[in-house]
């Protein structure tokens, strides 16, 4: 590699000089908490990104369902440029107009009555857990509240949210875990009913149920309509809060603005983050007025709801609706699933199904195959396509919501090429 690499700037079509990326320096200074692929990304445009050597990739990871409007979207560029010149951060000790505007947009476009802002999905779920416990003590008269979550779920990396996460691999080495959680199989209504009955003893009762409308890290597994309809009724009948984790599926990812709209119910509480501001860090916990029990001093976030992040999120939300992007999500999602199913049919010994909603989709590998999902992900990388695993047996496709018909076709071709390489 030469001391300098000439790159083609996708925005200006002019050449510019880039300093080669030094992986050794990165590894010497950054904690080793990720298994990273051997490329360093430095710029993006739409659904494409370029690495420091000028190699182009079609991005079907989108920051793991985060870059809602893709990369360098004009509306987002304009908003963040104007906002950073105006006011980017002040304390929540004062009213923040941008925060109020974003909260009003969310309330007007969801079942929520109140919004709490933070910085990430884990923080949003942590806020929901705290709200559920306070509600249990103040309203449900439960001295020892238990929160039910689903096996194979994922809710974050804080101690409380990895405890809520129904996967032991994320919890190992961080014991003792937070008390007050129990787990049930996903989409199994009998198991949910039995757990509620079994835990009802003295001052120890179920106060809340936390579910993902579609399990992302658990293998892109959509919730069953009947399961969620019955879960909603069970929670109502037993005075239990129903909390939905929409960190990965919210903000249009499923073809609906919110994941719960696919299931015919309204939650008492739901959370959002990833795609909310299109890649600018923000999280939110939304609730009905009936369970808004948090008061000054109960919970807070220094950076939560700052003007910069809220201005970005409001622009993302307005753009989704004003540019009919939800319709694109529905159409491109159907196109992608059709293409992936056609590919899977050619390799019945490798794949068992294709599942998902909108633009969060998974190709499920057979339990019998010895090929792990990561091998196909790596082969796709070499073909110029970024996809991500969702566990060892699922390929996950979560492109920006602005993805085009042509880009879906291109990605489908690259996936099939990657499969052929792994098969050979």
What does this molecule look like?
With 424 residues, the protein is of the alpha/beta class. It has two domains: 161 residues, Alpha-Beta Complex (Aspartate Aminotransferase, domain 1), CATH 3.90.1150.10; 248 residues, Aspartate Aminotransferase, domain 2. It has 13 helices and 19 strands. The strands form five sheets. The protein has a seven-stranded mixed beta sheet, sandwiched between helices. The chain has a four-stranded mixed beta sheet with strand order 3-4-5-17. The protein has a four-stranded antiparallel beta sheet with strand order 15-16-19-18, with helices on one face. α4 packs parallel to α10, α11 packs parallel to α13 and α12 crosses α13. It is globular and about 60 Å long. The N terminus is likely disordered.
Which fold does the CATH topology of the largest domain refer to? Aspartate Aminotransferase, domain 2
Ranges with pLDDT <50 over ≥5 residues? Answer: 1-18
Shape: globular
What is the H level of CATH, i.e. the homologous superfamily of the largest domain? Type I PLP-dependent aspartate aminotransferase-like (Major domain)
């Amino acid at each position: 590699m030469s001391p300098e690499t000439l790159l083609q700037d996708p925005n200006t079509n002019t050449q510019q000089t880039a300093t080669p990326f030094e992986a050794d320096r990165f590894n010497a200074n950054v904690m080793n908490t990720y298994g990273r692929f051997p490329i360093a990304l430095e710029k993006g445009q739409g659904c494409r990104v370029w690495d420091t050597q000028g190699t182009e990739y079609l991005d079907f990871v989108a920051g793991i369902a985060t870059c809602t409007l893709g990369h360098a979207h004009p509306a987002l560029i304009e908003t963040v440029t104007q906002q950073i010149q105006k006011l980017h951060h002040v304390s929540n000790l004062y009213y923040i107009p941008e925060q109020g505007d974003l909260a009003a947009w969310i309330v007007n476009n969801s079942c929520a009555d109140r919004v709490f802002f933070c910085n990430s999905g884990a923080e949003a779920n942590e806020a929901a857990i705290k709200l559920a416990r306070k509600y249990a003590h103040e309203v449900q008269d439960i001295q020892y509240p238990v929160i039910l979550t689903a096996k194979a779920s994922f809710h974050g990396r804080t101690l409380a949210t990895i405890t809520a996460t129904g996967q032991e691999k994320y919890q190992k080495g961080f014991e003792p875990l937070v008390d007050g959680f129990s787990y049930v199989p996903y989409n199994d209504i009998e198991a949910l009913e039995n757990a509620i009955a079994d835990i009802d003893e003295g001052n120890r009762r179920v106060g809340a149920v936390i579910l993902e409308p579609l399990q992302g890290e658990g293998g892109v597994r959509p919730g069953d309509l009947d399961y969620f309809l019955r879960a909603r009724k069970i929670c109502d009948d037993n005075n239990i809060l129903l909390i939905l984790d929409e960190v990965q599926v919210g903000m249009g990812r499923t073809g609906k603005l919110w994941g719960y709209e696919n299931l015919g119910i309204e939650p008492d509480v739901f959370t959002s983050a990833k795609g909310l501001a299109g890649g600018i860090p923000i999280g939110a916990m939304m609730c009905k007025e009936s369970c808004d029990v948090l008061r000054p001093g109960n919970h807070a976030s220094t950076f939560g709801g700052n003007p910069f992040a809220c201005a970005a999120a409001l622009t993302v939300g307005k753009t989704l609706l004003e540019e009919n992007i939800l319709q694109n999500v529905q159409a491109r999602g159907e196109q992608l699933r059709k293409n992936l199913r056609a590919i899977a049919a050619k390799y019945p010994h490798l794949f068992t199904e294709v599942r998902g909603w909108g633009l969060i989709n998974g190709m499920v590998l057979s339990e019998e195959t010895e090929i792990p999902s990561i091998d196909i992900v790596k082969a796709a990388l070499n073909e110029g396509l970024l996809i991500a695993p969702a566990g060892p047996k699922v390929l996950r496709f979560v492109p920006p919501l602005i993805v085009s018909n042509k880009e879906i076709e291109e990605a489908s071709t690259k996936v099939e090429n990657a499969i052929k390489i792994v098969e050979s």
